[in-house]
Design brief:
The chain is mainly β. The protein has helices at residues 61-67, 69-74, 139-142, 184-190, 194-197, 222-227; strands spanning 19-23, 32-37, 40-47, 78-86, 93-97, 106-111, 115-122, 127-135, 153-156, 162-167, 171-176, 210-211, 214-216, 233-236, 252-258, 265-270, 287-293, 303-310.
């Protein structure tokens, strides 16, 4: 019976778009839209129809004003598919980030249960290539479980100082980035603090070795260092304390980076005490906000502010870019 499941062939490619990202993935002078359709990755480029460039403007400006809306429609950009790539796994999270030493943006792809690939575009072969693979599947993090309801969640700091990845519903993986931030905090990272550059002591051994482009939790390698990544470490949200001193940020629904802070700051929407439809008459304001500040050099994450008694049906957090007016 096992031989019947040795091969898998998809009769029809995935058609639903569930993830998207935009940036300069193929070239600096080209704006790209990257779409994820299950196991398929599509890259689109902005294209302008003929006659919409600056060199094709009409000789008489009055003609442009007379045509009005018609000329405006001609100048609208179009999306052209410039690449379709089939992957050997379902994409759970995706983001574009500009890493130090790279001219173009790199693509971060996250797969179950706790794997992340750094992919970049190769102009020589007109194809994508894997620059690094992060493997965070550790038995100590799993704690005996084999399945999780919540897929991995990926977030990138707006100032590109670190990457946060939530795995196993309560384990937050922090990947610092060297030399990509702005201000005094970036200067601290360039000093290569002894605590920061050492592998995570809690997960050393076989689970902290790097072979080739594959890097596991707490490990480092020459390939990873060339990309600007520093050794990763883990924050156990079950052991973190909220603003009231209560232990644990549990039942995380969503989280995001906030702008306008000196250090990378994460805001969590979570539900420590859950409710359901049969208890809404008794308990319906169960969602909470907890915000932690990440000290990357010392691996500390104090809670700086929070809020409680939010509606039970809150689902997402959307950060507002600074300044908020």
């Amino acid at each position: 019976m096992a031989s019947l499941f040795a091969a898998l062939r998809e009769n029809h490619p995935p058609s639903t778009v569930h993830l998207s990202a935009s940036g300069h993935f193929r070239a600096l002078d080209e704006e790209n839209l990257v779409l994820a359709r299950g196991t398929s990755l599509e890259v689109y480029a902005m294209r302008f129809p003929r006659g919409s460039g600056d060199g094709d403007l009409p000789a008489h400006p009055a003609a442009d004003a007379a045509n009005g809306e018609e000329e405006k429609k001609d100048k609208q950009a179009m999306l052209q598919c410039v690449g379709t790539y089939e992957l050997y796994g379902h994409i759970e999270a995706m983001a574009l980030i500009k890493l130090p030493g790279r001219e173009r943006d790199c693509l971060l792809l996250v797969f179950r249960d706790a794997k992340m690939s750094v992919v970049e575009y190769d102009q020589a072969t007109d194809d994508i290539s894997t620059a690094a693979i992060f493997l965070f599947e550790d038995e100590e993090l799993q704690r005996g479980r084999v399945s999780w309801h919540m897929p991995p969640v990926l977030r990138v700091d707006p100032r590109r100082r670190c990457i946060a990845m939530l795995v196993y519903e309560s384990k937050l993986i922090i990947i610092p980035i060297r030399g990509s931030g702005e201000g005094d905090l970036d200067d601290d990272l360039l000093n290569e603090d002894d605590i920061l550059v050492q592998p995570n002591k809690k997960f050393k051994g076989d689970n902290a070795t790097a072979t080739g482009i594959v890097t596991k939790l707490g490990a480092s390698s020459s390939e990873i260092a060339q990309l600007g990544f520093l050794p990763s470490y883990v924050i156990d949200l079950d052991e973190a304390a909220d603003l009231r001193g209560a232990k644990g940020i549990k039942g995380v629904i969503d989280f995001t980076f906030l702008e306008g802070y000196y250090e990378p700051t994460l805001c969590f929407l979570h539900e420590n005490k859950r409710t359901w439809v049969g208890r809404l008459a008794v308990s319906h304001h169960t969602k909470m906000l907890s915000t932690i500040s990440l000290n990357l050099s010392q691996k500390r994450h104090p809670c700086i502010w929070g809020s409680g008694r939010l509606a039970h049906d809150c689902k997402h957090l959307v950060p507002l870019p600074a300044p908020v007016r």
